[in-house]
Design goal:
about 180 residues, alpha+beta, three-stranded mixed β-sheet
């Protein structure tokens, strides 16, 4: 039993290190795109209901926000359950990976119907003003894939092969 707790502890320590790496890269991109990013305190356009996270991230929130989850009411349906009445994130310091990268210019590789991979790009509609996201250098975009793979490995370290995702709203008592 003690070894199981040690392994879980190592997984959560690795999750915090992953978040620090993500935050470092996000800060670099935010500085690079500071003139176009409108993601500021109070902007909750991407804080939608139905966001799902790996169990490792859900468990991290459960461990760090036990009282909120047991006693606090979730935000009404239609927006993220973790917003307060003014739109501030109640778990900002411990928010999941997906919340840390919102608003940035994104790039990813997607297999096309012909079987060939193609680079795809997107950005929050609020942040479209400026150079077209398609013309940005690769290093000026958040590349979807590497951090998600690391997160999936942490999930496997916690639960074996299960890559199940948990809706954030269900973390609240009665959710």
């Amino acid at each position: 039993m003690e070894q199981g707790n040690s392994i879980k502890g190592n997984v959560f320590e690795a999750l915090i290190r992953l978040y620090l790496q993500v935050d470092e890269q996000v800060a670099r991109l935010q500085a690079l795109h500071s003139d176009r990013l409108h993601c500021r305190s109070g902007c909750t356009r991407c804080c939608v209901d139905g966001l799902r996270v790996f169990e490792v991230e859900a468990e991290n929130i459960r461990r760090r926000h036990r009282e909120l989850l047991l006693e606090g009411p979730p935000h009404p349906e239609g927006a993220c359950a973790f917003l307060d009445e003014s739109g501030a994130c109640l778990i900002y310091e411990h928010r999941p990976y997906v919340c840390r990268t919102q608003g940035l210019p994104l790039r990813w590789i997607e297999d096309q119907p012909d079987g060939n991979p193609a680079e795809m790009r997107d950005i929050c509609p609020l942040n479209e003003e400026g150079p077209s996201v398609e013309t940005l250098p690769t290093e000026a975009c958040w590349s979807i894939g590497p951090f998600e793979e690391n997160l999936a490995r942490l999930q496997i370290g916690l639960s074996g092969r299960d890559l199940r995702r948990i809706p954030l709203r269900t973390l609240f008592r009665g959710g």
